[in-house]
């Protein structure tokens, strides 16, 4: 905490004060109380309260009431008796009995009493007259009001801190340059660091999670920059990638904070993890795309395949004709081959759109993986790719369709091999993960750029050259796994490789119902 100069000077004054004040109270003489002195009791009570507070609060000088003189308010006589304070008839007698009194507080208020006190007090003793005492009382009231305001402010601040700390979002309090002034507890817990290590940094340098890196160039879409420029609330959806290559989505919002003059002097940045929501939205969009493709495929099946069948039939007929020259025969042969290629694409579209017809059975995942890798691994050595197959020893059977599962594995392994044109390592693993059977295909290829990772499972999306594929392999793989009740997970780091995990449900045998016993008839 940085103390101001005025605060330090006040502390110095208190430290230089006398160690203890022995107090003597001078009240009006008997019979001299008037309407002007009707508040004597309240002033007397305020003085007693100040003396009590000095014993409890270390920031006040120590003050102790030694004696009093004159007429004491009737409401306070019992209290003084309990305190053991002796009352004298006049100030002279009181000072003679207590020569060590070094602070006299005059509550009488008469000029004669003030002149008498100044005459009989030693130079080392201080005098507070009635006016100073009333002023002191006002200061006490203001101190109480200030203390209550501070208590209320402290309670409001604690309540606000509790609310902010309980929010699940990451909240950064920034200055007008985007530097961190404070953060909520969620930020510290997420990163596992102390708050002090984050202060005065630019919030753009703090990742959304530990070990995560921002996707794309330096944070050009940082909302704080836009808020600094236009002094308005700004929002952006940012992507971050963790150490395992998983992509996380965060909704980042920057709010300007203005002072009483209208100047923006603070900002608040809020980060909300919307990965789950974003993935659900993408699945919904995928389902809508599939529905649209289904409708389109029905049109294609009826309107295009019939003319295409006629084209292929006539092309075959022309090839059997003896009247064609060799040059014309070659052209007809090209027509026939292209019609067959087009028919193959149409079949892929129709097969993708229609519901997967599968014959679910008890399948040995290790056996299927071993057979598929054995077939596709024949040409891997020529590519310079080494195979590493790790089959789990305690992997249960799964409920799947053998041919469809093989098709998925073929698609994934072929893509992995194509991603390593200069060689590398292909690792295929089977294991158990959270009550599901895991089949993992991992390569050390060029990886998938972050900006297209959420697109590669879309129908007709492909990065291959034109004519090398229709872009349905990965989309069909994900659809098959989803129809089998499983899940597909992608982890890819550009320049380091890609890992695709298939999570499938173990096979659960359905017990046949117990045979009913024949009804026993009574004899």
Q: What does the largest sheet look like?
A: 6 strands, antiparallel
Radius of gyration equals: 44 Å
DSSP strand (E) fraction? 15-25%
The largest beta-sheet arranges its strands as: 7-6-11-10-9-8
Total count of helical runs of at least 4 residues: 15
- Portion in helices: 40-55%
Low-confidence stretches: 1-18
The 3D shape can be described as rod-shaped
Output mean pLDDT: 80
Cα-to-Cα separation, first versus last residue: 99 Å
* Secondary structure: number of strands: 18
What is the SS-derived class? alpha/beta
Protein described:
The termini are far apart. This protein has 15 helices and 18 strands. It is α/β, with parallel strands linked by helices and 523 residues long. The strands form four sheets. Strands 7-6-11-10-9-8 form a six-stranded antiparallel β-sheet. Strand 6 and strand 7 form a beta hairpin.
Annotate the secondary structure layout:
Elements (H helix, E strand, L loop, with lengths): L4 H12 L3 E7 L13 H17 L5 E8 L4 H10 L2 E3 L2 H7 L5 E4 L4 H10 L5 E3 L1 H37 L3 E6 L4 E4 L1 H7 L21 E2 L8 H8 L3 E8 L5 E12 L5 E10 L1 H29 L1 H16 L5 H28 L7 E3 L1 H12 L3 H4 L1 E6 L7 E3 L1 H17 L5 E10 L2 E8 L29 H11 L3 E7 L3 E8 L19
Parallel strand pairs: 1-2, 1-4, 2-3, 4-5, 13-15
Antiparallel strand pairs: 6-7, 6-11, 8-9, 9-10, 10-11, 12-14, 15-16, 16-18, 17-18
Helix pairs in contact: 2-6, 9-11, 10-11, 12-14, 14-15
């Amino acid at each position: 905490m940085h103390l101001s100069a005025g605060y330090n000077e006040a502390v110095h004054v208190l430290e230089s004060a006398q160690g203890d004040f022995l107090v003597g109270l001078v009240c009006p003489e008997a019979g001299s109380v008037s309407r002007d002195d009707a508040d004597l009791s309240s002033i007397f009570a305020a003085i007693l309260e100040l003396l009590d507070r000095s014993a409890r609060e270390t920031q006040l000088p120590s003050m102790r009431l030694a004696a009093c003189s004159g007429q004491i308010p009737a409401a306070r006589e019992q209290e003084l008796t309990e305190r053991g304070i002796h009352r004298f008839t006049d100030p002279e007698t009181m000072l003679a009995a207590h020569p060590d009194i070094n602070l006299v507080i005059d509550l009488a208020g008469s000029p004669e009493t003030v002149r008498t006190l100044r005459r009989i007090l030693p130079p080392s003793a201080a005098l507070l007259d009635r006016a100073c005492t009333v002023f002191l009382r006002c200061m006490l009231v203001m101190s109480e009001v200030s203390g209550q305001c501070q208590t209320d402010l402290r309670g409001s601040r604690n309540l606000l801190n509790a609310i902010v700390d309980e929010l699940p979002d990451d909240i950064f309090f920034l200055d007008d340059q985007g530097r961190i002034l404070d953060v909520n507890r969620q930020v510290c817990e997420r990163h596992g660091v102390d708050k002090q290590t984050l202060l005065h940094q630019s919030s753009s340098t703090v990742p959304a999670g530990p070990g995560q890196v921002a996707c794309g160039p330096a944070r050009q879409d940082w909302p704080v920059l836009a808020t600094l420029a236009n002094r308005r609330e700004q929002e952006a959806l940012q992507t971050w990638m963790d150490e395992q290559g998983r992509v996380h989505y965060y909704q980042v919002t920057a709010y300007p904070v203005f002072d009483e003059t209208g100047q923006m002097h603070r900002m608040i940045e809020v980060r909300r993890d919307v990965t789950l929501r974003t993935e659900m939205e993408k699945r919904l969009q995928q389902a809508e795309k599939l529905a649209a493709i289904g409708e389109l495929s029905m049109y294609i099946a009826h309107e295009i395949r019939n003319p295409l069948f006629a084209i292929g039939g006539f092309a075959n007929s022309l090839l059997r004709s003896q009247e064609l020259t060799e040059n014309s025969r070659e052209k007809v042969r090209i027509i026939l081959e292209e019609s067959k290629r087009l028919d193959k694409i149409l079949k892929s579209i129709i097969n993708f759109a229609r519901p997967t017809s599968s014959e679910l059975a008890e399948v040995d995942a290790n056996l299927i993986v071993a057979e598929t890798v054995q077939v596709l691994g024949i040409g891997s050595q020529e590519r310079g790719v080494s195979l590493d197959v790790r089959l789990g020893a305690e992997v249960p059977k799964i409920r799947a369709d053998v041919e469809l599962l093989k098709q998925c594995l073929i698609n994934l392994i072929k893509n992995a091999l194509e991603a390593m044109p200069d060689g590398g390592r292909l690792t295929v693993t089977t294991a158990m993960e959270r009550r599901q059977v895991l089949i993992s295909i991992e390569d050390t290829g060029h990886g998938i750029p972050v900006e297209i990772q959420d697109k590669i499972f879309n129908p007709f999306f492909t990065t291959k050259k034109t004519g090398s594929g229709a872009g349905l392999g990965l989309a069909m793989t994900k659809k098959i796994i989803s129809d089998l009740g499983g899940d597909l997970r992608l982890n890819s780091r550009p320049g380091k490789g890609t890992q695709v995990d298939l999570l499938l449900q173990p096979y659960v045998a359905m017990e046949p119902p117990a045979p009913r016993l024949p009804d026993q008839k009574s004899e």
